[in-house]
Specification:
Strand content: 15-25%
Helix content: 25-40%
Number of domains: 1
CATH topology: Rossmann fold
Number of strands: 5
CATH class: Alpha Beta
Number of helices: 6
Strand order of the largest sheet: 3-4-5
Radius of gyration: 15 Å
CATH architecture: 3-Layer(aba) Sandwich
Mean pLDDT: 86
Shape: globular
Distance between the termini: 24 Å
């Protein structure tokens, strides 16, 4: 979940199908993919839901938060507003999920470091204040994506 145009769908496609497209259309409602991966010597099949970031789809997308084992909230490092809206997204998480749902923040577009609008210190402070892991990723290059999903799956495996 996260603001519109932060790259949620592109992250999902990069992770599930190892493809990237510059011309991805806006998600209407929800989309999902499956991926099988080895985590701690266990073959693990995960289902990932991609929710639309636009306000007009919020009544649809919130229904999909309820059964989630984990939530990935995304923001775009070149878009200050998307970082500023993280608290709003975590308020949504609090309304529609159990308190023990695992959470992670994906700081997307780390390949665009020269266009960064969110300072690393701000990201570090958010991570410390909220106790939520923030990982740098790039849907375009694939950087960090496998590690981010592996991190969350490892947490889920330990919990079970």
């Amino acid at each position: 979940m996260g603001d519109t145009c932060v790259g949620k769908s592109c992250l999902l496609l990069r992770f599930s199908d190892d493809i990237f497209t510059e011309n991805y259309t806006t998600t209407i409602g929800v989309d999902f993919r499956f991926k099988t991966m080895m985590v701690n010597d266990k073959l693990t099949k995960i289902q990932i839901w991609d929710t639309a970031g636009q306000e007009r789809y919020r009544s649809i997308t919130t229904a999909y938060y309820r059964g989630a084992a984990a939530i990935c909230v995304c923001f775009d490092i070149t878009n200050r507003e998307s970082f500023g809206n993280l608290d709003m997204w975590f308020d949504e998480v609090g309304k529609y999920t159990d308190n023990d749902v695992d959470k992670i923040v994906l700081a997307n577009k780390c390949d665009l470091e020269e266009e960064r609008k969110v300072r690393k210190e701000e990201v570090d402070n958010f991570e410390k204040e909220h106790g939520i892991k923030i990982m740098n990723v790039s849907a375009k290059t694939g950087e960090g994506i496998e590690n981010a999903f592996k991190f969350i799956v490892e947490k889920l495996i330990k919990k079970k």
